[in-house]
Specification:
Blueprint (H helix, E strand, L loop, with lengths): L1 H4 L5 E5 L4 H12 L3 E6 L2 H13 L4 E5 L5 H15 L4 E4 L15 H28 L3 E6 L12 H21 L4 E8 L5 H9 L3 H7 L13 H8 L10 E4 L7
Parallel strand pairs: 1-2, 1-4, 2-3, 4-5, 5-6, 6-7
The chain binds NADP nicotinamide-adenine-dinucleotide phosphate (NAP).
């Protein structure tokens, strides 16, 4: 049974892995046997995660990357292939939230900035990585979206649109890249306790309690609770699954 989830000999790239959900995913994939490339803008916090991964006996590389900068994204793929020669798993996790803002108060520059990090960068990265995956016989791409991709939220227009777009692109990627042996799925997390959500709570007190109340399990989640779904989608355990969105939200969504 463990062979189904074994990632030994695989190389996985996790963006936004310096903290929060991405860090938990990077450590989880390393424990499943993969060598890990991690990225974020702040390289010193990436270095700390690399040290943790290496202490598990896996190889790891940190690459500083601003997802909205095409040159950074290209360099990330080049450095990964220089060091490891391949990339078998990509977790497009880096993303930014937004403060609550009605559409009428939102500038176009703000909208574009959110799309650049949450959609344009992940699309560029997935496209570059898919070309490499195709050369080595395939792989698995996992795009971290949000329940806002399935139920867009008022006052969260830029964020909801970005995650909806990435979910839609996940399906297009799955269709276009299936012939190359590449599976692409999205994960839609509900409310996980990270810097992103504690920052929102500090601006909108009661936000976390309300989110917990909206779930069937009556609680928010910890980043470690996304690790199982990611290992499932990264591994042979999900070999017949592509083009789907997995909602990990304590039952908050009905569909
Ligand atoms: P987080 O704690 O704020 O961590 C975000 C990570 O992304 C950090 O490593 C950050 O590092 C990196 N990052 C941010 N902006 C970046 C940029 N422009 N370029 C490159 N890296 C960047 O967030 P999280 O809560 O773990 O969220 C991770 C993903 O899950 C995001 O896509 C988010 O939208 C999604 N999500 C989260 C929740 C939740 O409840 N937490 C719910 C639904 C979806 P640097 O700042 O050093 O760059």
């Amino acid at each position: 049974m463990n062979e189904l989830f074994d990632l030994s000999g695989k190389v996985a790239m996790v963006t936004g892995a310096s903290r929060g959900i991405g860090k938990a995913i990077a450590l989880g994939l390393a424990k499943a046997g993969a060598d890990i490339v991690i990225t974020a803008r702040n390289s010193s916090s990436c270095d700390a995660v690399v040290a943790e991964i290496e202490s598990l006996g896996r190889k790891s590389l940190a690459v500083s990357c601003e997802m909205s900068k095409p040159g950074d994204v290209e360099a990330l793929v080049e450095k990964t292939c220089e060091q490891f020669g391949r990339c078998d798993v990509l977790v497009n996790n880096a993303g930014v939230a937004q403060d609550a803002l009605p559409l009428g108060d939102m500038s176009l520059e703000f909208y574009e900035q959110i799309q650049a990090v949450n959609v344009k960068g992940p699309l560029q990265l997935a496209t570059l990585v898919a070309k490499r995956m195709a050369q080595s016989g395939g792989g698995s791409i996992i795009n971290i979206v949000s329940t806002a991709a399935l139920e867009p939220a008022g006052h969260m227009g830029a964020y909801s649109a970005s995650k909806t777009a990435l979910r839609s692109l996940s399906r297009v990627m799955a269709e276009e890249w299936a012939p190359m042996g590449i599976r692409v799925n999205a994960i839609a997390p509900g409310l996980f306790i990270t810097d992103m959500t504690t920052d929102l709570e500090s601006k909108v007190p009661g936000f976390l309690d309300q989110a917990a109340e909206n779930t069937l399990l009556k609680r928010t989640a910890q980043p470690i609770e996304l690790v199982g779904p990611v290992i499932f989608l990264a591994s042979e355990a999900s070999s017949y699954m592509t083009g789907q969105t997995l909602a990990i939200c304590g039952g908050a969504l009905k569909t």
